[in-house]
Amino acid sequence: RRSYSPHGAYAQSKLALVLFTYRLQHLLTADGSHVTANVVDPGVVNTDLYKHVFWVVKVAKWMTAWLFFKTPEEGASTSIYAAVSPEMEGAGGCYLYNEERTKSADIAYDEELQRRLWTESCKMTGISDESRRVP
């Protein structure tokens, strides 16, 4: 509804991923599933994400990436941890950063917002919202 901001859109998409994952884990648990869903934050990784930004940002990234950014391999380590670590066996609904469970933004725990996103996602994809039968 306001002017477009690439950073704002990126942040909003990341929040949506967290909200969606928490709702998915809630539904999996309610159905008695052994499948788990977790959020993995890789941190700031030196990838082509900044490929289409202004040249000033590209120069700043080029000058600081070696100091502040993770390599793609380092960025993948938390995803690998979530997938194969014995500590994560059976653990769902976690937010992981640097191979540790941590707290996500407070808004991500808003269950009504999680439900609204889930319902809207089902509508937009044409999938039946079976979660309506789950409290």
From TrEMBL:
Gene3D superfamilies: NAD(P)-binding Rossmann-like Domain. One of its GO terms (molecular function) is oxidoreductase activity. Keywords: Oxidoreductase. The keyword Metal-binding does not apply. It comes from the Eukaryota. The keyword Oxidoreductase applies. Belongs to the short-chain dehydrogenases/reductases (SDR) family. This is Dehydrogenase/reductase SDR family member on chromosome X. It comes from Pelecanus crispus (Dalmatian pelican).
